[in-house]
Write a structure and sequence with these properties.
The chain is an alpha/beta fold. It is built from eleven helices and ten strands.
């Protein structure tokens, strides 16, 4: 079983780690795109191009770093597709899912990411949605708030520079960006939606900066569960760790970037499979 993750950078780590925890036997392919990041500042058609390029780069990439056939369905190019493709990025999901599904489904399920506004609002408000500046202003996020807000107060909180600081694993910049967002989060907030997957990597730091008063909501667990559902398999965390992890940098085989190892999710993905 081989699962590909497509994102511009290390925002994919929390979702990939959640999948690995649920299925230690799965081979994972982390297809990053450092040559063209960040994607969020690009035009929608350019984001589609990069998402498709990331998925195509994962064709034939094995979970232990080597090219291999795997068990996936043939792709339109004749290469072997992963058994599932996951897009652990809100922006990339908004713009790229339709094109990915046209290219790979029905043989290969494609799973996107949606900010968990619905479960956060279900517990009552007020709710703050932390996201990038562009996403905070987007019609997409506003439509999610309107659809899933369930009548509670939901406040968008733009977080300038936070994703970039996390990508670089720069502690001072991370703390400064978090402080900026905390200052713009209503004091009565009881739930915070992490609307950028990068933010998952510093979830505890965000919670601590808010004084622990707000429950954190992330999408990683739900996306991992949906991936297994689409594959028709159950979670089996008790299985031995036999699945490998392959990393691609704009299509080139590589190792996890040094910044990834600063986070628990990144470190978890470096565990060596049992033989």
């Amino acid at each position: 079983m081989r699962i590909a993750f497509v994102d511009s950078g290390i925002g994919m780590l929390s979702t990939a780690a959640a999948v690995r925890a649920a299925r230690p036997d799965a081979d994972l392919v982390l297809s990053m795109d450092p040559d063209h990041m960040p994607w969020g500042a690009r035009a929608p058609e350019a984001i589609v191009e990069r998402v498709l390029a990331g998925a195509r780069a994962a064709l034939g990439a094995g979970g232990r770093g080597e090219a291999r056939t795997g068990t996936g369905a043939p792709s339109p190019t004749g290469a072997v597709a992963p058994d599932a493709i996951v897009v652990p990025c809100n922006t990339a999901s908004v713009h790229g899912l339709t094109s990915l599904r046209e290219a790979f489904e029905p043989h290969t399920p494609v799973v996107g990411t949606v900010p968990p506004i619905k479960p956060a609002a279900a517990r009552g408000g007020p709710v703050a949605v932390w996201s990038t500046v562009a996403t905070s202003r987007s019609r997409y996020q506003q439509s999610l708030i309107e659809e899933f807000g369930q009548g509670v107060e939901v406040v968008p909180v733009p977080c300038p520079g936070l994703a970039e600081a996390i990508e670089s694993a720069a502690p001072r910049a991370i703390d400064a960006a978090i402080a900026h967002a905390v200052a713009r989060t209503p004091p009565q907030t009881t739930a915070v939606v992490l609307g950028c997957t990068h933010y998952d990597l510093v979830e505890q730091r965000i919670s601590d900066a808010l004084g622990g008063r707000a429950e954190m909501f992330t999408a990683a667990g739900a996306v991992a569960a949906q991936t297994l559902r689409r594959l028709g398999i159950a979670a089996a965390p008790e299985l031995p760790l036999t699945g490998g992890v392959a990393v691609l940098a704009s299509g080139r085989p590589t190792r996890l970037p040094a910044a990834a190892l600063a986070y628990r999710s990144g470190a978890a993905l470096t565990r060596v499979p049992q033989t």
